[in-house]
Design brief:
about 40% helix, seven-stranded parallel sheet, Rossmann fold
Amino acid sequence: MKLKNRVAIITGAGRNIGEATARLFAAEGAKVVVVDLSDERASYVASEIIKEGGQAIAVVADVASEIEVDEVVKAAVSAFGQVDILINNAAVSDNKTILDITKEEWDRVIAVTLTGPFLFTKYVARQMVAQGHGGCIVNVGSTSGERGRKRAVAYTAAKAGVANLTRSLAVQLSPHGIRVNGVIPNKIGSPVGKDEFDPSRPVINLAGRSGVPDDLAKALLFLSCEDSSFIVGELMVVDGGAMVTMEGM
């Protein structure tokens, strides 16, 4: 098992990429803290992991709330004694243009998608430093942070911020033995903030198929285990070759 006895906090773990990652990490031996804004979704994923013989707790939290983020980390330590891995996955999108987005919509997207990873990393990193044996943090970015889009402005700005946040965190936390990396997916599973996955959703890439949550979960597993011990501050593109062609952007 690649994550035996490791404790992993995964945000946005109640569905889609987060759920697949929580299940995979548990199967690889991790004790998982399932974080989601929905109690129903978080509890379901945690209960399924336990049913399959794994260890998990569900914690309801708004990733944009500093108080609630602090409470999640405390809950993880209370339940499992430590924190070894953080997956910053939670995000929301605006799907608006600069001409019609409101400031309230802009603020919420930035708060969840960019400030959320900042807050979780701050509190988890403090815990990891106190523990004294390092850890792994992986931020989920997006190809939307690498290119302009016709139908999103706050989300593209937030995900671009996540990319450079990842690099800065890697520089600042590496002296403490904490590896920080990121992944850059493209149209994997259901759209951001949606429950339903539409396999007919148009996707142009070199793989010739839509990405599924397990595709990204496996990349997150790689960056969270010893197999990637010499990889620091990188942004792994997991997009089926979409950005190589540029046709699908």
